[in-house]
Write a structure and sequence with these properties.
This protein is α/β, with parallel strands linked by helices. The protein has 2 domains: 2-56 and 218-343, Alkaline Phosphatase, subunit A, CATH 3.40.720; 64-213, no CATH class. The chain has helices at 27-35, 46-53, 64-72, 111-125, 173-188, 191-198, 231-240, 251-257, 271-275, 279-302, 339-343, and strands spanning 2-8, 37-41, 83-95, 98-102, 131-136, 139-144, 206-213, 225-227, 243-245, 262-266, 308-315, 318-324. It has a 7-stranded mixed β-sheet with strand order 2-12-11-1-10-8-9, sandwiched between helices. Strands 3, 4, 5, 6 and 7 form a 5-stranded antiparallel β-sheet that branches. The longest helix is centred in the last third of the chain and has 24 residues, at 279-302. It is globular and about 70 Å long.
């Protein structure tokens, strides 16, 4: 049985801060990493890595919107053959002449609120053939009549970034920059945002266009079982016809359900904590991963229940792959070392 763990944010993104790892007992993870064969490659966002893993080619963007539409728009009668773009609600704040973006990981928004916001946008833009669809509280979509000459950036790569120089590119970028600015004015004036701020909630004062494209053909996977709570992974599993299961609470619960094969397990609880530099929560969730996943998986490897374990770590600095088999446990010369030594490379 082959297990592939996708763990974005396993290493703290700021190099040169070994104190972040102090007093963390991570002996199982450190053994796994030390005994593994190691490769690395250029940085990729989680959506890009998943697209590549499922044989999805980049169009102008990585086509997240049409793939996710198969999940969020299922049974709702939408034309899934056209060009779709994500237009997710975000909060922007100005700091030292920088415009910083935050997504729904740090604010709550209900579907009712999303409908009210998009109703306002549709009153303004529907005459231009642009229709905003709040198919999920924090996942909005735009159906565009013709394919725009536009390249956008993944929302997951914009968290905490100065977006002033990261807006869409392409021949039609000026028109979309104008739309972006108009939407900020419309949302700024929205009475619902006044209510949110009165209740101490962040205003939904902008949207982020990203993930545009047409539905890809022949989405496929080398995995035959996928375990995740990550929405885009879920959508790719549906599109490729692979069995998808909710993420179990720990590896022991997973082993009770598991069948032989090639398994992808997405452990993404650390990702948002690294994006927002939340050290305390990142450390706590890393402890949970050690106890709930790494310790029991190492035991399963020792018993040869698992024939190969691959850990793929996505970070801002690059991708690190650790590949381990039971025979690697005999590498007596490969001594465990602190997690900080991997994070600094």
């Amino acid at each position: 049985m082959h297990i592939h763990l996708l763990i974005p944010g396993l290493f703290w993104p700021e190099a040169g801060r070994p104190e972040v790892y102090s007093d963390l007992s991570l002996s199982a993870l450190e053994v796994i990493l030390a005994k593994s064969r190691y490769t690395e490659s250029q940085p990729q966002g989680i959506e890009e890595w998943l697209c590549r893993s499922f044989g999805v080619s980049k169009q102008q963007d990585w086509p997240v919107a049409p793939i996710m539409l198969q999940l969020d728009g299922a049974g709702k009668g939408f034309d899934q053959n056209g060009y779709w773009l994500r237009a997710d609600p975000v909060h922007l704040r100005i700091q030292h002449n920088h415009m910083l973006l935050a997504d729904s990981q740090v604010f709550s928004i209900s579907l009712k609120e999303s409908i009210q916001f998009t109703d306002t946008l549709n009153q303004y833009y529907s005459k231009n053939g642009i229709l905003f669809l709040p198919l999920h509280a924090d996942r909005w979509y735009v159906r565009i009549p013709k394919i725009p000459s536009l390249q956008t950036r993944l929302l997951s790569e914009m968290i905490g970034k100065n977006i002033n120089n990261l807006l869409p590119l392409g021949e039609e970028s000026s028109a979309w920059h104008n739309i972006f600015n108009e939407i900020q004015m419309l949302l700024h004036q929205h009475p619902l945002n006044q209510e949110r701020e009165e209740h101490g909630e962040l205003a939904i004062n902008s949207i982020w266009f990203w993930g545009g494209g047409m539905m890809p053909q022949n989405i496929r996977s080398t995995f035959n079982q996928i375990w995740c709570d990550h929405p885009f992974t879920h959508a790719l599993a549906v599109a490729s016809g692979v069995n998808r299961h909710p993420l179990p609470p720990d590896a022991k619960a997973w082993q009770h359900q598991v069948i032989p094969g090639n398994h992808l397990i997405v452990l993404d609880s650390l990702w948002g904590r690294t994006q927002y530099r939340n050290i305390y929560e990142w450390r706590e969730y890393l402890r949970l991963l050690e106890n709930n996943w790494f310790i029991p998986l190492l035991e399963a490897m020792k018993k040869r229940i698992i024939s190969q374990l691959t850990i793929t770590v996505l970070n801002e600095s690059g991708i690190k792959n650790f590949i381990m088999t039971p025979n690697n446990l005999w590498k007596f010369w490969a001594r465990a070392k602190s997690l900080s030594s991997y994070g600094q490379n």
